[in-house]
Amino acid sequence: MASAIPNPPYEITQDERTMGTLAHVLQLVTAWMGPLVIFLLKRDSLFVKFHALQALLLQICLAILWIVALGIFFVTMFATVSRSGSMHHQPPPLGVFIAFPILWLVGMTAWVIVLVVAILYAIKAGRGEWAEYPVLGKIARQFLKI
Questions:
Q1: Which residues lie closer than 8 Å to 38 by C-beta, 6 or more apart?
Q2: What's the pTM value of the predicted model, to 2 decimals?
């Protein structure tokens, strides 16, 4: 699932483990702001920057997913409302009953995935592991030149 990065020549301190754990956990409450603050505050620790950047990248991907899903939702709504014709007491367009459950399902699935990933990798960061998110870990490694 996640490949380990070779440990750097220094020992990972308890403070670094705590900050790495916080970077993952805070994304559940603060979205992208918590990991960004930790990434900017702990620039001297490669371990903390690595974990905070992964959480930050996950939140950026989640934001992009929401923007795309909401864009599709609004296009569907406007397309079905414009086809429904006059504004005399008609039932809601069929697009509402199709697009809204799909949007809800996408949102709940993304929330569960972020919840599981944040908890799992917070535990790994607390243990001092250089655990990578499946796709985003490689991007974070390239960005940090690890």
A1: 19, 22, 23, 26, 48, 52
A2: 0.81
